[in-house]
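Review box. Two proteins, two foldings.
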Amino acid sequence: LFGQGHYDKEGEGEESETTTHEVKAKVFRLSTDKEGTPSWNELGVGILRLKKHKTTDKRRVFLRNSSTGKIILNFGIYSALKPSLDKKAISFIGHDAGKQVPYRVR
C-alpha cells in the first residue's frame, strides 16, 4: 500500500493475521544517556500495522524498518495499554526485553 520497498510488504509470521490498519510511521524510544539525561532516540521508519489474528482475535502492533527489515515494534495490544495523542505523535508504554519502555510514533 504505502512503501514500495521489499521490507514494507507483509512477511513471515503474518500469514495467520489480518491487517486492520497501516500507516507509514517513524518510531522513537525514550532512553537515558550515561549522565541519566532522557532523550528520544529514533529507531527507524516503516509501515506500522495493527494486526488481528484470524482465529484467536488477538491483536498486536507491528513495524518493520523499511530500509533494513529489522523489526522495531512487535507486541500485543493489551487492556492496560493507554496511548496518548498529541498534535504529531502517539505515545505509549511498550516492552523491550521484559522492561517497560516509553515509545512515540509519529
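Next protein.
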Amino acid sequence: EESNGPIDCYAAISQADRLQSEPESIRKWREEQKERLEQLDANSRKQEAEWKEKAIKELEEWYARQDEKLEKTKASNRAAEEAFVNDAEEVFPGTEWERVAQLCDFNPKSSKQAKDVSRMRSVLISLKQAPLVR
C-alpha cells in the first residue's frame, strides 16, 4: 500500500498546528536561516569550483615543467654520452689511469653519491701507485 503523505493521518495535522502556533519571530528566523544556509552552500560550491580550476591549472603547469626538465636531461645525457664515446675512441698506451681518473671522483667531499665508495677509491689509488705486474 503506497501513500503520498505521512502514514499517520494526524501527523500532517499536528505539523500544520505546530506551524500555525509558531510565533512570527521564530518563523522569520527559520526562513532567514534557510536563506543563509542556501547562500553558504552556493558560496562553498563556487569556491570548490574555483579550487578545482586552480588545481587543474597548477597540475598542467607542473606537467609542462616536468616535460621541459625531462627534455633538458635527455639532451645533456645525449651530449655526455657522445663525449664519452668520442673519448673512448681515443685510446693511447699509458693514458689508462688518466681515463680512470676522469671517470672516478677521487674527492670524497664533492661526491654526491649516497653510497660509500671509499673502499673502491682506496683500491684504485693503490693500484695507480703500485700497478699489478703480469
